[in-house]
């Protein structure tokens, strides 16, 4: 049985990488007075650090998770990070529609982690 860190480390790295990527993709929405090329270059620079976290997360995670499980996990983490970011940084309001959509995506991820359904 692999060590517990092998299960936990990919999750922590994916959370950290998603924080970087969320800022790279959406952080500039509060910066409207800069030329787009500067925004793209800054976003690209932030995304560079996201890759330094996401690639090891998947490499380590592959030791204990299937690729589909890693991807499903990443999607749920992305939504959770984005929800917090959207409310705290962008000042957006999460609605019931958002919550329902996020729950449905999380339910899809749950199925990825379940044993194959026999038909």
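Q: What amino acid sequence fits the structure above?
A:
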């Amino acid at each position: 049985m692999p060590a517990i860190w092998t299960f936990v480390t990919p999750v922590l790295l994916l959370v950290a990488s998603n924080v970087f990527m969320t800022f790279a993709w959406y952080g500039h929405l509060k910066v409207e007075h800069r030329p787009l090329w500067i925004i793209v270059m800054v976003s690209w620079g932030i995304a560079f650090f996201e890759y330094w976290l996401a690639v090891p997360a998947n490499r380590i995670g592959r030791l204990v998770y299937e690729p589909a499980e890693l991807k499903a996990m990443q999607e749920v983490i992305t939504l959770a990070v984005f929800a917090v970011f959207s409310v705290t940084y962008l000042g957006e309001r999460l609605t019931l529609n958002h919550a329902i959509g996020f729950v449905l995506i999380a339910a899809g991820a749950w199925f990825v982690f379940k044993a194959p359904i026999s038909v």
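Q: And what stands out in the fold?
A: The radius of gyration is 16 Å.
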